[in-house]
């Protein structure tokens, strides 16, 4: 069965370190998204991609970057982790047709000390 | 800019009661999605509504879409404890293939 996976599921890091969160999907979807979820803020879009070599900034992109070298993967990098980036991160993917469902990965809980 | 508002944001219900969660959005769209999230878990797709007047039902949950009013409702019938979760609506932007999410409604069903 097709799926979307994230790794690691939990990570603790220190302020200033570079961190990369992995997202891998086997749906063969062109569209992939990264969100963060914090109490009181719902889901906020960080970055998204509509295909290989395409990346776009979402509403809270500062301090984050993504790259898309193949269809299956969209890694999210925190260039220099800050305590404000402590959050739960969800990756998602969806097909390219209007009305296609969007599927979410299991999430990564990141703590920046 | 598309904005999506849900209300209420928190709902405490007695088992057996009925209630409705509302999702309003600000610009034209005829594609709306409902998700459920259990504590500590990811989002799970509940309903996909793709046209004006669309109605979908699953168990004690029924979702509908009125694109003219820019309103979707999630109706809960005879609530049970297992329905306790956070419910999100999300609207597809008319241009651009991405969803805009509401803030979520935390539902607690008390026995």
Structural summary, described in words:
- Chain A contains no helices and eleven strands.
- By secondary structure, chain A is an all-beta fold.
- Chain B is mainly β.
- Chain B contains no helices and eleven strands.
- Chain B has strands at 4-7, 10-14, 19-25, 32-37, 43-49, 55-58, 61-66, 71-76, 85-92, 99-101, 105-110.
- In chain B, strands 2, 4, 5, 9, 10 and 11 form a six-stranded mixed β-sheet that branches.
- Chain B is globular.
- The mean pLDDT of chain B is 93.
- Chain A binds chain B through residues 31, 33, 41-43, 45, 48, 50, 90, 94, 96, 98-99, 101-107, and chain B through 31, 33, 35, 41-45, 48, 50, 88, 90, 92, 97-99, 101-104.
List keywords for this structure.
heterodimer; A: 113 residues; mainly beta; seven-stranded mixed sheet; four-stranded antiparallel sheet; B: 111 residues; six-stranded mixed sheet; five-stranded antiparallel sheet; 0% helix
Mean pLDDT over the residues of chain A: 95
Number of strands of chain A: 11
The helix/strand order of chain B is EEEEEEEEEEE
Structural classification of chain B: mainly beta
Helix share of residues of chain B?
under 10%
Largest interface: A-B, 20 and 20 residues
Describe the global form of chain B.
globular
Radius of gyration of chain B: 13 Å
Oligomer: heterodimer
Secondary-structure element sequence of chain A? Answer: EEEEEEEEEEE
| Terminal-residue CA separation of chain B | 41 Å
Distance between the termini of chain A: 37 Å
> Number of helical segments of chain B?
0
Number of helices of chain A: 0
For the sheet with most strands of chain B, the description reads: 6 strands, mixed
Extract low-pLDDT stretches of chain B.
none
What does the secondary structure layout of this molecule look like, with pairings?
The complex is a heterodimer of chains A (113) and B (111).
Chain A: E1 4-7, E2 10-13, E3 19-25, E4 31-38, E5 42-51, E6 54-57, E7 64-66, E8 76-78, E9 87-94, E10 102-104, E11 108-112
Chain B: E1 4-7, E2 10-14, E3 19-25, E4 32-37, E5 43-49, E6 55-58, E7 61-66, E8 71-76, E9 85-92, E10 99-101, E11 105-110
Parallel strand pairs in B: 2-11
Antiparallel strand pairs in B: 1-3, 3-8, 4-5, 4-9, 6-7, 7-8, 9-10, 9-11
